[in-house]
Amino acid sequence: MVQLRQNGNFKYITILFFVSLFLVLPQIYEQGIVLNFDSLFHLNRFYEAMMNLKTGNFSTISLYGFTSVGRIVSSVYGQGFSFICGMLLLVLRNWISFQVVLSFLILFISGLGMYCLGKESKLSNKFSLISSLLYFGCFETNSFTFGTSMTGLSSMILPWIIICGLRLGTREKGQVNILMLAFWMGVALNSHNFTALLSAVVLTPFLIIGFIRSTERKKLLFDLGIAILITIFLSLNIFYNIFSIMRENHLITVMPKMELGFRGAFFSINNSASGMDIGLQNSLLFIAQICYVCFSWKNLNNQIGKLNKIMTILGVVFLIFSSRLIPWTILGKLFPVLQSTIQMPSRFIVVANVCFALGVALSLSALNRSNILSLHGEVVTNIILIIFLVLSFSRQEQFLYGGMQNWVDNAYSNFSSNYYFGEDKEQFKFLSRKKGVSYLVTEAQTTLPDYLPLKRKLTNQELIKLNPSEKYKNEVLSIPKGIFEKRITEDKKIAVTWTEKETPKERIVPIIVYKQTKLELNGQRLTKNDFDTTEIGALKLKGTQGENTLLVTYQEGKFSSIIYKITIFSWIALLLAFAVKFTLKCKKRELSSEKNSQLREM
């Protein structure tokens, strides 16, 4: 790990701190909540985790988030990250403060990762800082800030993953930093499934290069195996939940995107917030870097030059993968799994952002060392770089203002079609601030159908035709208030009460039923013959005349408790190992310093 406390690093890291703060200033100034496409889906996850920690009630199904309908979400998707966010929300108790602090932390860790990547590439402090600033100017790096997009988490994690990759691929013996690789892969698996997959893909070329170059291949493979084993232990809860839940249920993992080709990235002179528009600044940056490496190929023979070639080639490969040059729509029809895993090919551009930000810094460093630039040329280059960064940062701030615009203007009709508002729509903004964190996730709901159970396995075309988002809204979310009352019991059950005034008839109760969901109506345990479900798992039930009480719980697997204990212990052990390693390094440095002092005195 780069020694950040040495060689003036603190000054440059302080700059990263203030740039990260600058990029979240619009939300601090406007005091608005960012609500975009996926925002409410993730805010419900974080609220659920906060309430789990606050009450001590933990369950595979959501007890508090998603209007307490018993959905499974975080258990198979980013559970560790959800609990980190839940702890943060528990401390801050305010959605605006929560979003500001979390966005700042993600940006700062992203920038710090790029800075460390620059140092790992033997760049000076100045050019390592430049790589970070260029990375801050990328749309995807800021996407969590203005859209609560998990692509922002990818941008935070991937620079650290590539640091591990560089140690694998660019050193003679091919070193595996076991603790660091296991930590960041564990973070990826506990944060975002696609990021974990992307991280493994990114590491593959470095592993191949490292294996070919290594003089100690057995040790490399052994160390890699240990890192993988530790990663599995750190993510055992995720693997166990995915296996146990998906084995018994046909889940909607994510809604497939049929026309993948329309979701590829493209160069542009515009700066739209589509997530596919690379934008003017980055279009120029990428093209300039590719041209420089191509025209200077024969001269890039030193260590930095060779690394520049590797990073640029890797950047071009992932840029092509993210673009419309690949026949993604055709591939999606041939391999339907791509429609529900990749979804948006433009997400691959996160890797290109890292590679080109580092590549440009490597190129500028090489030009600086070669004295090709005259004094005037260096001044012009610095001016161009400053203009580029100012425009890029301004673009990101504008996107954040856009993320809050509907909130600030009370323009709720412009919110994502994936949102459903209750009866107090006109008072939503005022009441959200007055009533605390619970009101936001109760009064406004997401219709995203991720991880709902289907009655049978459907093809992508059948799933699109079914339109589960609309069904979820109609069957679960749009039931008028007052018909059903919900509360959480001390023994972690969802209690649903309602009254049948007339002759009972089968009705939809706003509860999602999985194979492992257990139901008890008026004190009597229900079997699968006593109820039915809709196509998206909503409960269909016939009560009795008068008051009805339904208790909903989830039958946890017999290994569930031990799995979670192993996972928690593994994280504690890893963090302790980091602490011990850091302490030993500090002592070694002190002894070395004392020895040098004694030699000077002699």
From TrEMBL:
<feature type="transmembrane region" description="Helical">
    <location>
        <begin position="12"/>
        <end position="29"/>
    </location>
</feature>
<keyword id="KW-1133">Transmembrane helix</keyword>
<feature type="transmembrane region" description="Helical">
    <location>
        <begin position="562"/>
        <end position="584"/>
    </location>
</feature>
<feature type="transmembrane region" description="Helical">
    <location>
        <begin position="73"/>
        <end position="92"/>
    </location>
</feature>
<keyword id="KW-0472">Membrane</keyword>
<protein>
    <recommendedName>
        <fullName>Membrane protein YfhO</fullName>
    </recommendedName>
</protein>
<feature type="transmembrane region" description="Helical">
    <location>
        <begin position="379"/>
        <end position="396"/>
    </location>
</feature>
<feature type="transmembrane region" description="Helical">
    <location>
        <begin position="307"/>
        <end position="326"/>
    </location>
</feature>
<feature type="transmembrane region" description="Helical">
    <location>
        <begin position="346"/>
        <end position="367"/>
    </location>
</feature>
<feature type="transmembrane region" description="Helical">
    <location>
        <begin position="220"/>
        <end position="243"/>
    </location>
</feature>
<feature type="transmembrane region" description="Helical">
    <location>
        <begin position="98"/>
        <end position="117"/>
    </location>
</feature>
<feature type="transmembrane region" description="Helical">
    <location>
        <begin position="182"/>
        <end position="208"/>
    </location>
</feature>
<keyword id="KW-0812">Transmembrane</keyword>
<feature type="transmembrane region" description="Helical">
    <location>
        <begin position="129"/>
        <end position="162"/>
    </location>
</feature>
